Amino acid sequence: MSVLAKTAQAIDSLARAKRPMRLAEVAEDLGLPKSSVHRLLTELTELRIARRTPDGLFALGPRLLSWGASAADSFVIRGVAEPWMHRLRDSTGESVHLYIRHGSNRVCLASVEGRAALRPVVPTGGLQPLGIGSSGKLLLAFAPSTVLEEVRAEAKKSRMSLPEDEELATIRETHWAVSIDEREKGLSGAATSICGPEGEVVAALSISGSSTRLTLQRYSEVKDDVFAIANEIGAAVAGRAGGAA
């Protein structure tokens, strides 16, 4: 394993813990000798990528905050989409999420929570698999065939259920995907695509909430609003229109 790979794994370990960790915990998580992990964490601390707490534990460092902010800013679509996402939340009352595909997964770029007490909570930056949930199905439908094959291979190993070819074809035709009680009992969602200047799918916009509120009938009522907002975001990203003024 390269030094860079070990470094990335150490940072991931500290991030997953969501609390300061002892040296022995990090070493056990990485499966590496404590001496090697100590040298690595010491260098990361000197670079402010990690930090030491007063009681000698290790945690993520302040340098990652600036990196994270820069990374978020690089996703132009997020800044463009958020005002429109708030508008969609206000018109439907439901949670609104923005996803992009990252390899065989999807990443939540932005999230606007709904008004109801029962609503999905999706952390920004969190990875979720393709093929599950409305956004996962939509992004899988428009993914390259190599990605589809990879996702199917992983699903077979984990016995995860994926949409059939017929459903994916319908999603590609309609740019609309619905998931009711699939990812989590009691929750449902619907998603459409945000397209770039050449018509390519660059992201998925979804609304989600309680499956008792968001029924197929309710989705038919709000579908036009979801499509309209997605089109506005796509137009703004492509430079064909301004933001949500």
UniProtKB/TrEMBL annotation:
Domain IclR-ED: 63-239
A Pfam entry, by short name: IclR_C
InterPro entries named in the record: GAF-like_dom_sf (IPR029016), HTH_MetabolicPath_Reg (IPR050707), Tscrpt_reg_IclR_C (IPR014757), Tscrpt_reg_IclR_N (IPR005471), WH-like_DNA-bd_sf (IPR036388), WH_DNA-bd_sf (IPR036390)
Keywords tagged on the record: DNA-binding, Transcription, Transcription regulation
GO MF annotations in UniProt: DNA binding; DNA-binding transcription factor activity
GO terms of biological process kind: negative regulation of DNA-templated transcription
Keyword Transcription applies: yes
Positions of the HTH iclR-type domain: 1-62
Protein name as it appears in the record: IclR family transcriptional regulator
Organism for this UniProt entry: Terrabacter aerolatus
Lineage: Bacteria, Bacillati, Actinomycetota, Actinomycetes, Micrococcales
